[in-house]
Specification:
Elements lengths: L1 H30 L5 E2 L7 E2 L2 H11 L1 H19 L12 H4 L1 H27 L8 H33 L2 H7 L1 H9 L3 H44 L10
Length: about 240
Amino acid sequence: MNRKASGSRQDRIREITILAMFSAIILAMVFVPYLGLITLFGIPSITLIHIPVLIGGAMLGRKQGAFLGLVFGMGTLIRATYSAGFDYLFIFPWVSVIPRVIFGFLAHDVYRGLLAFFRWMAGKRKAMWIFRQRLTALVFAFAVLTALHTAMVVPMMVFTFPLALGNASIGELVGGDTLSIMEANGGFRGILIFLQSIFITNGAIEILLAASAGAVVADRLIHFREKADSEGGDTDHAGID
């Protein structure tokens, strides 16, 4: 009994340690210039910070993923207080925090659901053995979740534009020239142009990076974790791939 309690305590300490490490990585990517947020051509920054949120959420679970999403969101909210351009709109929590918490919360379930699907497919179709099921599930999960993240954040930014248009100081920080172009394009048409540019540029780059580098890193980390659990006699996290 004591051995089981000791093992459970060690598991909790390990989980907290991993969560703290991911949180530190996220905060470093938020506040170190051009590490996690890359600004190009005056559009909202291309973000790489969602990748450690995805990896941590897939590895650790729903609550931990939601917590990492909260760290991501609060970090970008604080950074927005001294940012200019479109990034200034992240001072509003419905733009910076809420979508990231939802996105982090879903990471584990989307990954596990796709992993179960690919394993089921491997049992039904012999040709599926050529795919590494876990890595394939991570690639698809990270691509879908990154697209979902963009689909949640960008509309929130668009709905926040009236605050910038109606407030001279906010409008100046966001970028008066860009807002004038949007107004000149008839409001809704301007919004559509903005949405299209974000999905084509930022969204595509973020999806590609998450589904390639992010998925490979997550696959190796999950493998090492499952191996350590298996060697330690804990089979709860062990998987097959």
